[in-house]
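Supplementary Note 2. Why include the ligand at all?

Several targets in our set were suspected to adopt different conformations when bound, so apo predictions alone were not considered sufficient. For every target with a known small-molecule partner we therefore ran a joint prediction. The input for pyridoxal-5'-phosphate is given below.
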Amino acid sequence: MSQADLPSSKILSKNASFDSGEFVVAGVSATKIAAEFQTPVFVIDEADFFERAKTFKDSLESAAGEKSGHCYYAGKAFLCKEIARWVERAGLALDVCTGGELEVAIAANFPPERMEFHGNNKSVAEIRRAIEVGVSLIVVDSEIELERVASIATEMKRVQKILIRITPGVEAHTHDYIATAHEDVKFGLSIASGAAMKVMQKALTLPSIELRGVHFHIGSQITSDEGFTLAISRTIEFLAHFTRESGKAIAEFDIGGGYAISYVESDEALDPKTIISALVSAIRDESERVGIEMPTVSIEPGRAIIGPTTATIYEVGTVKLVELDSGSRNYISVDGGMSDNIRTSLYDAEYSVALANRISTESAISSRVVGKHCESGDIVVRECDLPSDVRPGDLLVTPATGAYGRSMASNYNHVPRPPVIAIRDGKARVIVRRETYQDLLGLDS
Ligand SMILES: *Cc1c(COP(=O)(O)O)cnc(C)c1O
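The joint prediction is reproduced in token form.
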């Protein structure tokens, strides 16, 4: 047996590394972070966030030139007031998909003219609030919602700009994509069934609605351009069809998010510059082919901006070696679990993990990192090789937990949710504090 491998720079944030066995983010060690902020704790490499945000924005602008729309940060990946302020400072736009995310953006003074509101079932109150604060675009998901937005805008004496969310019959997920004619999904209006055309035509007749364009989001953790380019070609053909039928050109095309990152060494992340330039070219070429003016292009990366910037640090509480027919497995229990990272139990997500507070010269053994919740499925990392001498009090780090980690966190078993610490140039500060028992009890009558 060899020693455990440490996660490479492919998995770590830009300014994170291992120094004599210690995980270090922008000059601050895991031991220091744990001593000051306790565990479990999310740590964001702040400079890395700005770099990734800028890379996507620049990639869109250099590929699309005067046809570049907005680079939206998809807030659902992780949003708090400080992140909204970073997104603003980085010059990106922001996509929110609930009234709660909208309130965070408003509380952070995010400019509403750079905001877009998504969701398949926005309430009347959410739509009213979005129009009231002046959210630039509402992405309409259904005919019922179109009517709802139109009547609220009429009542408020406003004209609301919208995109229509269409489903091009392409579902992309990780290593493959599925092309279908009929979409078995809750989101959007189908091109193939004629539903999208019908609602687009209807939008043109509503005086309180300004139809700006279309939107799709075909999946998550997408590793190649095939699904995207098929969806683009179907959508551009649809737009040409719409223009022939209605005499109206469509100005904006938003191609959503879903760009893959590396969670484990074998994952291939999409290079932002390469993928965005390929997708913009596809839109340009297809528009030329069908004879319409190229629409402006917007994108909505969430995971690919926040995911790799953040790591979770846990403390080990107990260790149990189990003998199996196939060998042995070391169960390592940490002080968090499915309440701070549901992705492993929810969709068998994989993560890298490493000892974060010291060097071990012991050999690596087959291990499983589990949480403290009353559920066998409470697994943080299903299969990993960690040193055989991992013991109570050690720290473990799981990198790339920035997206859909803290944002999907729960209070299962009344476990308070961990804080989020931003680190830059050797300085660590709290951007979301740890929940307390007082916070939890505050809801009870
Ligand atoms: C989830 C979502 C995104 C972001 O997806 P990522 O995989 O985080 O890039 C963008 N747009 C819409 C509409 C979404 O639902």
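Residues 159 and 208 are 4 Å apart (CA to CA). The chain is about 30% helix and 30% strand. Comparable summaries for the other entries are listed in the accompanying table.
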